[in-house]
Dethiobiotin synthase
Amino acid sequence: MSPIGSLLWRHLRVYQIYGSNTDVGKTIFTSIFCNASSRIWRHETTAYLKPVSTGPEDEADDKCVSIAIPIAVQFHSDLLPGVVIVTYPTTVKSHIKAVLIHSHIRRFANGVARRTLYQYSQPVSPHIAAKGNVISDQCILKSVHEYSSERAAAGPGWLFIETAGGTHSPGPSGTPQADLYAALRCPVVLVGDWKLGGISSTVSAFECLRIRGYDVEGIVLFEDEKYGNSDYLKEYFKEHYGIPVMALPRPPPLDNGSSKTKDYELMLEYYALASHTKEVEETLVYLDDRYKSRIKVLESMAAGAHQRIWYPFTQQKLLQPKDIVPIDSASGNHFQTLVPECSENPTGKPLLQPSFDGSASWWTQGLGHGNISLTLAAAYAASRYGHVMFAGMIHKPALDLAASMLEIAQNPRLSRVFFSDNGSTGMEVAVKMALRAARTRYGWSPNTKMDVLGLKDSYHGDTIGTMDCAEPNTYNEKVEWYEGKGVWLDYPQVQCVAGEWQIQAPSEFGTDCNHRFPHLADIFNLGQRISRGDHKVYEKYILSTLRRHLDKGHKFGALILEPVVLGAGGMVLVDPLFQKTLVDVVRHRPSIFDLDNSQTLPSDDRDWSGLPIVFDEVFTGLYRLGRPMAATFLDSNPDISVHAKLMTGGLVPLCVTLASECIFDAFASEEKSDALLHGHSYTAHPVGCQVAIESLKQLQAMDKSGDWNWAKSNGWLQAKNDTYSELSQTNTQVWSIWPLDLVQWISLQAEGVAGVWAMGSVLAIHLRASDGSGYTSTAAEGLRKRLLAGTGTGNAATGSWNVHSRVLGNVLYIMGSQRMMEQEVEEISKLLRTGLEECL
Amino acid sequence: MSPIGSLLWRHLRVYQIYGSNTDVGKTIFTSIFCNASSRIWRHETTAYLKPVSTGPEDEADDKCVSIAIPIAVQFHSDLLPGVVIVTYPTTVKSHIKAVLIHSHIRRFANGVARRTLYQYSQPVSPHIAAKGNVISDQCILKSVHEYSSERAAAGPGWLFIETAGGTHSPGPSGTPQADLYAALRCPVVLVGDWKLGGISSTVSAFECLRIRGYDVEGIVLFEDEKYGNSDYLKEYFKEHYGIPVMALPRPPPLDNGSSKTKDYELMLEYYALASHTKEVEETLVYLDDRYKSRIKVLESMAAGAHQRIWYPFTQQKLLQPKDIVPIDSASGNHFQTLVPECSENPTGKPLLQPSFDGSASWWTQGLGHGNISLTLAAAYAASRYGHVMFAGMIHKPALDLAASMLEIAQNPRLSRVFFSDNGSTGMEVAVKMALRAARTRYGWSPNTKMDVLGLKDSYHGDTIGTMDCAEPNTYNEKVEWYEGKGVWLDYPQVQCVAGEWQIQAPSEFGTDCNHRFPHLADIFNLGQRISRGDHKVYEKYILSTLRRHLDKGHKFGALILEPVVLGAGGMVLVDPLFQKTLVDVVRHRPSIFDLDNSQTLPSDDRDWSGLPIVFDEVFTGLYRLGRPMAATFLDSNPDISVHAKLMTGGLVPLCVTLASECIFDAFASEEKSDALLHGHSYTAHPVGCQVAIESLKQLQAMDKSGDWNWAKSNGWLQAKNDTYSELSQTNTQVWSIWPLDLVQWISLQAEGVAGVWAMGSVLAIHLRASDGSGYTSTAAEGLRKRLLAGTGTGNAATGSWNVHSRVLGNVLYIMGSQRMMEQEVEEISKLLRTGLEECL
């Protein structure tokens, strides 16, 4: 099923009517709005939609999609043209009022189209009424979108979508309505509660909508002198949110049963009066304004951004307003983006389309945009704590997150947690830790020039200190204060080429290392490869290179690696055996790094030796590559490990630098000035910590409950061999949400594709570049643009969708969240195949 | 009034009973809990508290604090000992059920103490009933705390506090109860709604409590077969929160009026049965466990932190678990911290005390902890967007914040907004911007060694790049990769010494600059001082120092200043005339920075000249010193301006670097690699942007509505002279929330105090240090400890409170939020005077 766009058309104003409780007058207010809008905008059309309805219903003549309960109705035209009187099929007289209310929509037959999508007969909550006949949430959204599209195609007008019960009343599947409909991003009119306790239920309902990203544009309720709810609410919403509250007199009391005709007349009179009031007219004009204003804001954002924003990683001279994508919102794995050049589009075309977030919002997104559990975690901590300065104090979210990260790390070396704000600052901290530990152990003077050891194409962030950890490259070489402080080794990489998994080593490694493997898992079977002696050629290269630089007088303070994948340096999958061998060489030969050659292996196997080993798992860790820790792919335990991005599930910045006790001890002294005097204002901010706890909990739960088994069995498990047999053993698996057959198919597009690989939620396509292979290459740009063009106009009803992806020079990567479903992957794979066929 | 502690005692379990709506059975469930707890814990006491009650009430014999309505009651002892039958003073029979429910608390007279604090006679919402007799929120909290303290002193037991109406039903002042009581941090039992629509109202009420930081420990409701709410809710809360839901049968229907005795008997039977059920017993045991667990967690946090956390800016060898302050929560300007050594304290002593957040949580806090508007802003953006990668895309919060910051800056030079995560990264960006602009203008080669120009004691963050912008100091000099890249000038500082405002200049400036002023505002009257020629000696010093370094071959790429106050460098108030003169010298003599001496003043007065001028307002800006922009104190417009901390009101990290168009243009080219290739994953994260928009809105509203007039008139306005006359002109004011007489009194403690100053919400006391005056000095430590000891045991009822402050070497500073009230300032001032008298 295609992703569903939020509901926004230029000339169809769609409002959703939510109730702060049952029986507060949702249908009456909707009827009044329908009546008034069809009167005021007499050349347009007004429509009413009830997606899900329960109880005996008079909507039999509407095209219910299913489960419709036919009920006799008759037209009663002498009161008002188009008014319907229901012949109620039961004898329960006390229900007459409810039936009356439902039937009121019908009196606008002159101008009001109406539809019930799903009708259940029992007058109870939809989740009970639907038992045995559950309609999926996705199905309901699709139907609502289709009906709205039909209305939009029919011309300008209004569409009022009435929900059932209160904001959190469950839909047929049991999902609370406020969650069910959130992705549609309809602006809301909330019907407040005039009764005793109604202030509370109205404000509560409002907040539940607000914290789900709804824009409540107006609140309406009945007047009641005794409780005075409307007075309080008018003041409250004006002061706190600037939202207008409209109050109308209550409908007349109905004399149930004794004189139906009288009741009808009373109600008709009430409607006639209410619909003509200045309040209602002003409210509709206001809602119309707000609707237009939302579109205006969306359409002006690109120009505004072009004028004011200084974008990261962007040559703005080459950026036009049309290149800037305005987003209205995001939910699940999709942004809702403004469809380009919509002003030239026909009336009926939607202004928003779903855009797959193909960079996982810069590799942060893992649990879906608009994840309400993360929202609630953030809100809880915001209110319980705000921020708490983090020296000499402790709060539960920080301590729990520290414990949780140490547990997830499964690395007996790590015992300490230092907090900072992002991967770059976390790596600065890691470097400071490592250099101090090395310098003090080796007894070097404070002014000793110290280098780091790493791989070419590494990237650790954009602050000067972390830039200095990377060899000169596009990102850093033009930065005035950049000064590469290290030695960076060549490395062998892994790709699927022409259907085969290959290790490609630079020429200096010799031809010995260029192997082919039937399965990616074979490459990660390090034990087997070491027993075969595959690592020896690596060891030789590493030792000779190291010795060459040490002989020149280099002093090293750290080995810094991005385990398995070099991210910003080009989405390169490094042979894990090479990284493991590098760690082992450094660790097992401590004496070579020491001027005195006096170092021996430490007795405590949690102590570092050779060099402190820093793993930058900011990108690769926390399930991005399919495992909680990327270090496990290397079967190596670092002394320092840095984690960010996915840790907060794609919500707020936070980073932790985990360290071993002996690294920590290198800063211990009687002098305050020997301490790690690093910190940021919002260190360990409770909101970030609480969100991280929730994110990790969700990720671990998915892992444990086998949520990714569909993906693992999509070709990847066939790649197992004897030592990779248990599905339950996380650490023995190499898999991706991207099906193996897609990866292999791409690798066979040999004229344009140099190689491809997939792990976890990452798919990286290395395109052949005639114009060089660096960051400045434009080889992948064509494919990116094709994916951005998406499905084109697509289905008129559900609209088009596209893929927002990022390129790194000649590499196009697509990165999903950890919540991707099989069907979603299939849809994107299809578009990707089309795109590749067209572009290559 | 003293700040109020959250309610936590070791042996008194305090639970607050909230209702998800009116008429859901709060009183019945509370009665059942009272009855069952007094039975199960028969050697302890159970108490019931209704802080605010409306309607005719049977509580006349309780000690209501005020406004009690005497109502006749009689004891009816033949049904159950201690049962009270109310003689209802009105004849409204339909109210009999409500009255019955209220009276049920009484039947536990054997073991249950009960109290109503504020009784209003009208049976409507308290905010209406209280008209003309409004009790302040603070007063209610104090009474609740006092009563709870009494109960705690009386020995172990339970206290159930019943709220009125629903979660958001207003208290007497109109504040919704969920907000009113949030600071007490009582764990909650939520009474769910069994009626149609009750799923929605229960979940809504729960979420409203949750997003206010409440811990809802259990949900209870009546069973109803038709709606099945309890089945749904059990499943829902188990799955989402692991919170147990208990359902009990509904009370018997009462035959109102016709046979009162029968009604009573029916209810008595119901109570007897309900109170003895396994469900109720298990629920109470669970609540007891949760209560103990909360205390256990609090008491174990310091040890846990000591073992796992690597603290920023902390020599952990000198840190013992007892030095780590565990906090339970924070609200307003106070943390709620664990009272030390509470295990030795008597039963009745509270475990939590309010600790004034005297560092404004590292200078971030401005709008109070637990500010619900900020929470809601964060939650809205979290759900509407999550995170959105910020290259080539735009979302409303980012654009609105950019516009808002540019508007607040009131600086015609600034037109561009670059986002990052914290002050340090924002300054890295600023430095990269400035260096590139200078290098390209002056035509220097990419490898040119470039310095920054600044002041001694400057501090711009802890990443290596910003460390390099500061002269060698305690923070940076032991960092392996630190390399000061600049020239840092001496400066004259301002202090109140012995009652007088003095400018103290280093000896090299000559004695000409050591002036005394009656008022601080006179020092900030730059126009007057320049007309007197006060700046000439500064100009001379600056020029000669600059020429000396330029002659040595230094090439400068930026002037970087913290306007007005050097923060982490020691809370030093710099003579604003000196900083202005420095800016002017740099700007008006562009040729001296150019190798070719060919530079002339630019024609566009928004263009930079001499050097790009960077203001680091991370600490000093956004009202911290009393004005929206610290730059206005210097009457100078920087080319680049960096803002963080207060921008997000003390919630989440976010930073903006504002720049002029000509700085921006320095990166424009046809080459992508010439762009500012800097960025962080969570760049412009919507949560941070939305929170910042809300923070700025609140700060600006306070400014506009004169919320600080009480402070301005506290001595500071007397310091005005002719040119500082209008209260309304923000930019002509120099003021502080700390009263001038306090500042002067402190300055007169000459034996211990070297000087003192206050501006905005900052008060900095420079103590005399025999052991050196640097960051490592311990001169201020004694005073800090004294403030932390606080008021001691204080009032047994309301408990003690203290001040959590930070020192920078020999400087102790206290920083309030921008929401501090006069009374709060007075209380802290009093403690501060006591502390100074005792310590000096």
Chain A touches chain B through 173 residues (CB under 8 Å). The CA atoms of residues 709 and 727 of chain A lie 8 Å apart. The two ends of chain A are 28 Å apart (CA to CA). The first strand of chain A starts at residue 12 and ends at 19.
